[in-house]
């Protein structure tokens, strides 16, 4: 029988570590929406952002704190009083607030603020004490713990515990550790650091060597009882531990991993799709648990085996993660109720006015395509949400001339901050012409780093999903769109990325630069 000591807390950092990933910036309303979904699916702790990073981050964390019903709401702060005070100001509205403060403890990271071991130890003592005087739920992290000298790691963990930290998080910041080491590290810290048995140890793994999930689960074997993770493994570089992977691994292999979480796994697919849409990071088709092919059985042998007994090739049931079974496509005669029902099965819950808007789009699509498959509806939903978030630029009209005789041309009407502007542009192909039209109407220096086209389904009437990545002096923004007309999808994806870029420009976030703040500087 499982007891509370087998319970693993799920700490989701999609809105902080995930959103920090270049190009993954979410708008304010998108952050609130994702937080609500995390809260509803049973995530124990939501790291809602880094409040000192910008006014926008602060506002998002405070609003999430006010709205959360069940989850603990946590904010991140560097090891200085000003950050910690700002973090507290944002999270204090929550029913259950938490301050998370961190400092890089490895030799490489100590060199950044240029602190000796003793100076850093004093700073940890002072800042954790300061946080604990504000909030009785304090998490402390020695960043780059897995490359910190063992003796020093034990010393600083003990200092943080004595100063009042209630959770000690052990980050594998650069994805350097391996499962055996990950388990051993936590086991030894709990056993050897005075007070280690009285706090919760957490594991926070990055996926640089593709071992984040394995390392997190190994840390649980070593005694960690909090896993830090993100939806779809979103995060910098190769990302963070994927929530869906650790949760489903513990559920599916409870025979060898006798732990449990309070996550409602049937909500996994819906939140995975939503995070993919709002972050602009597509999920790779063969991604574990949430990839498009994770439950697809293409080969004849597999299909035959599945028909005889699904357990031949399935270790999890698709329903357990919120995937509906095989479903019939919709068509132009399908009504609003059928559309609502289908969307709900796909994890989209819409208010009546939203359904009205989506229904109009659905009818337009069904006029172009005989059969509207689940994948089409998912693409349509992503598209409509990206367009709703566009506050600056909107395409009102696009007409292109293409063919074997060049140059190709595009006529475009673009709404720029409320005013319609018209232009005709030429280019090397219709997509180039359409992009040139956008550039003529909205001047910018962003470089097109990625342009990718995928067919959503089979057939020549299939929708094309286009992904675009822009880079303006290191500020990255992605955009995505789908349409049965590839040129239209391309232009819309480009405009979606530009809208995000404009938002990113406004954010002007601070990074983790430790030199910029004196640590006793009270805000
Ligand atoms: O990876 C890391 O070390 C972090 C810390 C800020 C906890 O994200
Ligand atoms: Zn991290």
Backbone structural class: alpha/beta
> In CATH, what is the homologous superfamily of the largest domain?
Aldolase class I
Bound molecules: 3-methyl-2-oxobutanoic acid, zinc ion
Instruction: Assign the CATH topology of the largest domain.
Output: TIM Barrel
Percent helix range? 40-55%
Q: What does the average pLDDT come to?
A: 92
Could you characterize the architecture of this molecule?
With 523 residues, the protein is of the alpha/beta class. The chain has 3 domains: 242 residues, TIM Barrel (Alpha-Beta Barrel), CATH 3.20.20; 62 residues; 118 residues, Alpha-isopropylmalate synthase LeuA, regulatory domain (Double Stranded RNA Binding Domain, 2-Layer Sandwich), CATH 3.30.160. Helices cover 40% and strands 19% of the residues. It is built from 17 helices and 14 strands. The strands form 3 sheets. The chain has an 8-stranded parallel barrel with strand order 1-2-3-4-5-6-7-8, surrounded by 6 helices. A hairpin with a 2-residue loop joins strand 10 and strand 11. Helix 2 runs antiparallel to helix 11, helix 3 crosses helix 4 and helix 8 runs parallel beside helix 9. The chain is globular and about 75 Å long. The mean pLDDT is 92. The structure holds 3-methyl-2-oxobutanoic acid (KIV) and zinc ion. Its EC number is 2.3.3.13. InterPro entries: 2-IPM_HCS-like, 2-isopropylmalate_synth_dimer, AIPM/Hcit_synth_CS, Aldolase_TIM, LeuA/HCS_post-cat, LeuA_allosteric_dom_sf, LeuA_bact_synth, PYR_CT. It catalyses: 3-methyl-2-oxobutanoate + acetyl-CoA + H2O = (2S)-2-isopropylmalate + CoA + H(+). Keywords: Acyltransferase, Amino-acid biosynthesis, Branched-chain amino acid biosynthesis, Cytoplasm, Leucine biosynthesis, Manganese, Metal-binding, Transferase. One of its GO terms (cellular component) is cytosol.
